[in-house]
Amino acid sequence: MKKHCHLFAILIFAFSLNIPAASFNAFRMPIYTIESNHFIIHYTEELKPVAQRTANILEELYSIYRDTYDLTLPEKTDVLIANDVGGNGWAMDIANTFLLSPNAFDFNLRGTHNWLRDVITHEYAHIVSITASHKMSSVIPYFQFGLFSHPNESERVEGLHIYPLEILPPWFFEGIAQYESSRFGSDRWDSHRDMIVRTLTLSGMLLPYDHMYVFAGRGDDYEKTYNHGFSLVKYIAETRGYDKIVSILRESSRFGRVNFDRSIKKVLGISARDLYDEWKQSLEKKYTKQIESIGKQVFGEKINTKGYDNYWPRFSPDESKIYFISNNDYEYSLRSLYSYTLADTVEEDKRIKREMGSVKSFYSICDTNGLIAFSSVKSRKSTLPMNRGASRVPDIFIDTLPPEEKKFGLFHKTERQITEKQGMMAATFSPQGDMLAYVRYNNEKNCLCIGDTTGKNITYIYPDPGRPELKIQKIFSLDWSPDGHSIAVSYIDDTDRKIGIYDTASHEFNVVCDTRHDERDPRFSHDGKTLYFSSDRTGIYNIYRYTFETQSLQRITNVSGGAFAPDISQDETKLVYANYDKDGYGIYLIDSIEIVEKLSPDSGMLTDRAPVRDTLQDVPT
């Protein structure tokens, strides 16, 4: 992510002038610095191991990027490491500085990779590639020319023109950063990116070339610029050679070059719009052939009418409605819990209603008592003390599901916050509703915890802190089996997105379908005999059903977009899930499940990830 921000610029230029970082630390947190041959890395105490790994990765990249772009940066690059819960990164080329957060980025419009290596490679690629396109020294970000007449003139003349330092459009500089990370980091052209570009191509909704020049439109349009740019840069590299990308940067650095399209014309010999049309035709040919090969599609009926981010559908305890998260008419950050009634007596255009504004991401509903558990940063009680940064961290809340007829008045609040300052990313109820399995983050790692619904008695259960090779970067969702013996976990280790099953009695942790495919979003059937989840094993995400007793696998959707986050009715005849289509993520319902494909059991169906744990530990505070 490239970013120009004057407020940050003040801080970063101060770093460049070797003013101590602590001078700008409003909360008086101790700031430490390590310096390698080509980098200066600033971090807080708990991030020291991350800082050292960051330095090692960057020194490895330095010679690669130097040789690729034939560029030596004038000074050491400053790197700021921030303990941001949500995952983040930005680069400021004019200050030769970038920031990263070591916590994995959770975004349903991207796949999941080794986040730390990905963000380092991506942001440093911005620094080097954009600097290679500079026309002047970075201390001169632009020339400004103007003509202004005297204010008292009867006919005033005013004119202003800015001559820029660089002219790269977003699709190009973001495409380069992602492509470089696919070569030397951990990013790749994965099933998520393919899903987005495939769906838009086949529906005739690829961003026009002019739109790729700007970040504009809905929130997901910003992500489309990333994906389109990655795809187009990848296409140039594969059809003309990656050296042409570097040549386009060099051509754009010519002092007289103010039009980026002319840089493409000069280097590739065709206009930028002809290049776009050529790329678009190649996508249409590729994806048309792919979808023809999958045969008859099985996807059910779309039930939501608005929004591009509809996710985590769940049947209500009495199966009279389907709950789901949606941004409705708003942007990504303004999601809420909605419901769709299944009653035939309600008119179709009145079936959807907003239920709870506090629930914006993964949540858990207890069938036995009608309670809902969710994570949020909304509470002041979740604010860390000054010496830890004074930011708000996520905590767990429990509430009752709203009644059909809401009571009037100001004092009917049933919500309660059960953890404080714990960094709890998600939770799921036990079958009886008296316990919760929690996901807690600690710097760059997540762990699985278990405790009661008061939030006062929580124990750390997985992974073993004494086994660093078992590190979990992030846990995305979880589900507790109906018999109470198992907790299904969607997680990423250092490389792959997987599903694990934690045994609450033996403390064993087994991986379901332990392959290099992306498996995610586990959900137990009501009898606990099967597990539903999403997998990209065909190159397209579909919903699968795994039977524990026979270790057999069945595919039950066949979509052209991507199927995620399944939930199943009590009799296992109905399936609800999130499906990516031309409008973004929508909620789809299959009224009668049929098996699309039966797969033979393989050796990776259920494998042990770690030996039995002997003890449990209290959660550190």
Structure description:
Helices cover 23% and strands 30% of the residues. By secondary structure, the protein is of the alpha+beta class. A five-stranded mixed beta sheet has the order 1-2-3-5-4, sandwiched between helices. Strands 17-18-19-20-34 form a five-stranded antiparallel beta sheet, with no helix packed on it. The protein has a five-stranded antiparallel beta sheet with strand order 21-22-23-24-33, with no helix packed on it. The model is unreliable at 2-24 and 611-616 (pLDDT under 50).
What attributes characterize this protein structure?
globular; disordered N terminus; 621 residues; alpha+beta; 5-stranded antiparallel sheet
How do you describe this structure in short?
With 621 residues, the protein is α+β, with helices and mostly antiparallel strands. 23% of the residues lie in helices and 30% in strands.
* Helix/strand structural class: alpha+beta
Number of helices, counting only DSSP H or I runs of 4 residues or more = 9
Largest sheet: 5 strands, mixed
Shape: globular
Total number of β-strand segments? 34
- How are strands sequenced across the largest beta sheet? 1-2-3-5-4
Alpha carbon gyration radius? 26 Å
- Please mark out the parts with pLDDT under 50 across 5 or more consecutive residues, or reply none: 2-24, 611-616
Query: Strand content of the residues, in percent?
Result: 25-35%
Please state the average pLDDT score.
89
Distance between the termini: 33 Å
Helical amount = 10-25%
